[in-house]
């Protein structure tokens, strides 16, 4: 038994920022538990956090620097010295020849605060460019603008505790049951304790989050501003506003009043596609609640009206005086684990460290003075979409990408792939070599990842945690701050030789210490924090100025706001419809977002078969009426077209959507599904202020894809290696999807289709890679070679399956594989090729409870026997560990038929 140690750290996924206890033997991570002492989660973890130790297969990790010395060549293994010297030379030459704005950095909300700080100093102080932006542009930038425009500073004013204390909670454009599950658990528990608490959900889809809702407003996509103005109209009419607060602490109310006068209940109900009664009920809940809190996420931010949506919602808080009090306030949920840290350190092109602005000469002078450089660049930097446009048209000639996968996550992927393919020099600093972006790296730098690096992060409630390292990084991977500083020192030798280094940091703590002084006297002042204090007293909220004994749980309790006159501003933006209105050619609106158990581009979660148990493959959801209108059935392959391209994948009836809407998970890019994924379809239009793109509303149309020749394959073992070998073959198919399956014996599962049978040579190559070309394989090929079946059986168990041309037996065979059996019926079926599979078409079904491996079928059977939630928990154990599946079980309890007892 190895010596097991425990290191307290944080979960690397969402902005809840849960504390985890990593169990390890100083070499390898062996397990993970929730940290009972962490104030975000008090020991809870969701289905993603609790399976962290099962992800991150070494076969998928980037282990060594790799360099390509010409676009046509393959990358080959390098060493850190040569790799970083080469990068420094290319950057220095590019800057010398084309100026500092010919290079750019595209970074991530998943970096640690120390990493961010190093990148910012590198771009602004050394390179002299504001071309540094992050994926937070796709995520939180509308919330940043919302807070700054309305309240004066980018600070979510609430604490998690307020979610539990509130009397009325409005959840808008957030599926927190999937995306912030531990907070949702806290809300569920609070609601069980205080059933009188009112919960409103505003989302075009009926999500699992609606399981807690007293009122769900399934508004038309993008109509939130109209809704919020309509609510304010009623609040004013009914006298449910706080005139004293408006008078004492705000300005701009008259202009807003004039605007919302036109947003009558009838008009708003029409614009939003809801009833006047629903609208009135919503206003009544808000207006009559002693405390009112709102939570929101990407349904508001990812929109061409993202800034307006944020401010229109904050208007409701200002008008009712519901801010700065327990259980009240506008509380934006942060997506990534340290998007907050990015905002604090200035990691959007328009920001500087300490909540400063690049456009403000005083701010630039303050930071330049502190860093000891003459000036900071004045020219505005490019935001994510603009930045990749500049790469596309050749203005940016050297691009450094860290901890993000733009070749999957940015809208209009065709252009992004073109841009990356033509950019003269692309550096990718990544933990997993498998991402779509790594394909374009001229220099791939292996980064340490979760459990392997030290630093700090800030979660959604402004709480800073010390992230501790448990094990060494694999291969030659290094922590991000160290890579960045090492490169910066080499670039310094070329750009400012002989001068003292700006990057003389021996450890992340030195970066934190230097950075924190830039927050002194600012709204986020964290000069009172240090690693030692965080270690002694646990995670702390900012502001936490030097000399303070604790951070502040709630901002603006005194009604004074960090604006020039101390007053909060009402913002009067009119409602604007999404950019792509539905029309005859593109009559459906595509909405995209998250699944419960996957994280973004799946570089980490996609290495674990368990994460695919809940949803196995990318499927387009459509309302049943839209399917019948197009003569489609669930499971059919369809071609999905937008103005930017088309994609082939299966369709499924989904009655959580309204007619006219479609839904696709955001996680699939060009790896697990052929064709660049949801962002092939999305549009690059962005909000005029926040520059955040409209990832939630693209016009599309769907039609049947006639691809009768189908392939199904399953092969167990060595999944990552086989994946890499098999993936290239799928260029020959119109549809191809790869996933992992099998909890105990992970296997690769492949589905593909094309119009007619491929050349025999393609199948032969496939068979070699699947291991069904020789050895203990039962095989049948029809004389015309359009139908072929192969099953490999070792020690009485199926270990590989390949069905070509005719796949009716796939579910039956997969079930046999999963049970570990291979009986005589298999041989009989193989030799009588046109007979139906003896097991019928048994469907494998999805795993509902991933912790305890309980399938949806088992839960439905339990419900049919009359079990209620407690009964199901007791008998099947589902929902008793992390609880992530409980909302879904509750929904099944409502919708599944129950046996009627006599
Ligand atoms: N499981 C999981 N959790 C995650 C992540 C993950 O990848 N996987 N990622 C993290 C990150 S970075 C982020 S940003 C968050 C995102 O967290 P969320 O924003 O909660 O997640 P999404 O699924 O992107 O979108 C939320 C909802 O917005 C709705 N929506 C779409 N259009 C509109 C609209 O016009 N108005 C309104 N009111 N609603 C609309 C969608 O139907 C969807 O249900 O999740 C974080 N947590
Ligand atoms: N259609 C659509 N598109 C979307 C969204 C949507 O809702 N719909 N949401 C948008 C949002 S909100 C977000 S936040 C983005 C997310 O988009 P991305 O940022 O592209 O998402 P990830 O896949 O999390 O990328 C993080 C990368 O960092 C790598 N990594 C992990 N740990 C480390 C580390 O410690 N160091 C380094 N250097 N690398 C590491 C991971 O392997 C991964 O490839 O997607 C956006 N795109
Ligand atoms: S809610 Fe889940 S994914 Fe988010 S930080 Fe906590 S454990 Fe991680
Ligand atoms: Mo995000």
Automatic annotation (TrEMBL):
One of its GO terms (biological process) is cellular respiration. One of its GO terms (molecular function) is 4 iron, 4 sulfur cluster binding. Residues 4-60 form the 4Fe-4S Mo/W bis-MGD-type domain. It comes from the Bacteria. Its cofactor is [4Fe-4S] cluster; Mo-bis(molybdopterin guanine dinucleotide). Signal peptide: none annotated. The keyword Metal-binding applies. This is Nitrate reductase.
């Amino acid at each position: 038994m190895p010596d097991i140690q425990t290191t307290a750290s944080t979960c690397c996924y969402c902005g809840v920022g849960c504390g985890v206890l990593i169990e390890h033997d100083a070499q390898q991570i062996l397990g993970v538990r929730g940290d009972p002492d962490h104030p975000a989660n008090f020991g809870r973890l969701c289905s993603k956090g609790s399976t962290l130790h099962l992800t991150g297969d070494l076969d998928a990790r980037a282990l060594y620097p790799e360099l390509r010395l010409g676009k046509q060549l393959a990358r080959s293994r390098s060493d850190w010295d040569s790799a970083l010297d080469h990068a420094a030379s290319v950057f220095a030459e590019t800057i010398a020849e084309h100026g500092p704005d010919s290079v750019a950095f595209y970074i991530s909300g998943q970096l640690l605060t120390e990493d961010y700080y190093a990148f910012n100093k590198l771009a602004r102080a050394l390179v002299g460019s504001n071309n540094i932006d992050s994926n937070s542009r796709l995520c939180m930038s509308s919330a940043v603008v919302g807070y700054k425009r309305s309240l004066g500073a980018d600070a979510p004013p609430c604490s998690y505790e307020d979610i539990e204390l509130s009397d009325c909670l409005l959840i808008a454009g957030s599926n927190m049951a999937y995306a912030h599950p531990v907070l949702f658990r806290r809300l569920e528990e609070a609601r069980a304790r205080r059933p009188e608490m009112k919960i409103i959900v505003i989302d075009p889809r009926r999500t699992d989050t609606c399981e807690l809702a007293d009122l769900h407003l399934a508004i038309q996509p993008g109509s939130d501003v109209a809704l919020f103005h309509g609510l304010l109209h009623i609040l004013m009419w009914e006298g449910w506003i706080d005139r004293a607060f408006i008078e004492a602490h705000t300005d701009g109310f008259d202009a807003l009043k004039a605007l919302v006068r036109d947003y009558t209940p009838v008009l708003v109900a029409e614009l939003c596609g809801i009833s006047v009664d629903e609208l009135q009920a919503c206003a009544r809940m808000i207006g009559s609640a002693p405390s009112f809190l709102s939570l929101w996420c990407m349904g508001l931010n990812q929109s061409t009206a993202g800034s307006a949506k944020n401010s229109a919602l904050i208007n409701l808080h200002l008008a009712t005086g519901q801010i700065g009090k327990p259980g009240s306030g506008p509380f934006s949920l942060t997506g990534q684990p340290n998007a907050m840290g990015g905002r604090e350190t200035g990691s959007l092109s328009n920001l500087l460290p300490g909540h400063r602005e690049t456009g403000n000469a005083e701010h630039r002078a303050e930071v330049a003075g502190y860093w000891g450089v003459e000036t900071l660049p004045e020219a505005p930097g490019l935001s994510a979409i603009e930045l990749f446009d500049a790469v596309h048209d050749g203005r940016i000639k050297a691009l450094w990408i860290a901890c993000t996968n733009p070749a999957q996550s940015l809208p209009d992927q065709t252009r992004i792939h073109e841009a990356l393919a033509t950019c003269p020099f692309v550096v990718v600093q990544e933990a997993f070599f498998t991402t779509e972006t790594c394909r374009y790296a001229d220099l791939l730098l292996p980064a340490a990842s979760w459990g392997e690096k030290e630093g700090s992060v800030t979660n959604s409630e402004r709480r800073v945690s010390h992230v501790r390292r448990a094990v060494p990084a694999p291969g030659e991977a290094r922590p991000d701050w160290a890579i960045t500083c090492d490169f910066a020192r080499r670039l310094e030798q070329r750009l400012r030789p002989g001068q003292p280094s700006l990057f003389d940091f021996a450890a992340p703590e030195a970066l934190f210490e230097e950075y924190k002084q830039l927050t002194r006297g600012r709204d986020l002042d964290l000069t009172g924090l240090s690693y030692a204090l965080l270690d002694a007293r646990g995670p702390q909220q900012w502001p936490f100025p030097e000399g303070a004994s604790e951070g502040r749980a709630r901002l603006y309790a005194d009604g004074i706001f960090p604006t020039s006159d101390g007053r909060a501003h009402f913002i009067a933006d009119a409602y604007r419809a999404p950019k792509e209105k539905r029309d005859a050619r593109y009559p459906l609106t595509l909405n995209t977002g998250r699944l419960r158990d996957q994280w973004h581009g799946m570089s980490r979660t996609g290495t674990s078969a368990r994460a695919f148990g809940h949803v196995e493959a990318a499927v387009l959801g459509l309302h049943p009426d839209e399917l019948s209108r197009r003569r489609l059935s669930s499971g059919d392959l369809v071609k999905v077209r937008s103005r930017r391209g088309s994609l082939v994948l299966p369709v499924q009836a989904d009655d959580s959507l309204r007619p006219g809407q479609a839904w696709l998970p955001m996680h699939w890019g060009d790896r697990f599904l052929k064709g660049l994924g949801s962002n092939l379809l999305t549009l690059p239009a962005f909000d005029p202020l926040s520059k955040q793109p409209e990832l939630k509303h693209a016009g599309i149309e769907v039609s049947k894809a006639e691809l009768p020749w189908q392939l199904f394959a399953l092969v167990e073992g060595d999944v990552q290696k086989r994946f890499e070998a098999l993936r290239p073959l799928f260029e020959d198919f119109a549809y191809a999807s790869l996933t992992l399956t099998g909890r105990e014996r992970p296997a690769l599962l492949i589905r593909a289709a094309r119009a007619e049978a491929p050349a025999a040579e393609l199948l032969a190559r496939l068979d070699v890679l699947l291991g069904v070309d020789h050895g203990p394989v039962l095989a049948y090929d029809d004389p015309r070679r359009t139908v072929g079946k192969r099953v490999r059986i070792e020690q009485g168990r199926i270990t590989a399956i390949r069905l070509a041309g005719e796949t009716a037996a796939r579910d039956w065979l997969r079930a046999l594989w999963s049970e570990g059996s291979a009986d005589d019926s298999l041989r009989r079926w193989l030799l009588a090729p046109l007979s139906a599979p003896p097991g019928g078409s048994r469907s494998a079904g999805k795993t509902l409870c991933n912790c305890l491996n309980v399938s949806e079928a088992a839960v439905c059977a339990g419900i049919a026997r009359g079990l209620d939630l407690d009964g199901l928990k007791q008998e099947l154990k589902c929902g008793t560990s992390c609880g992530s599946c409980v909302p879904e079980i509750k929904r099944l309890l409502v919708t599944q038929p129950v046996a009627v007892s006599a």
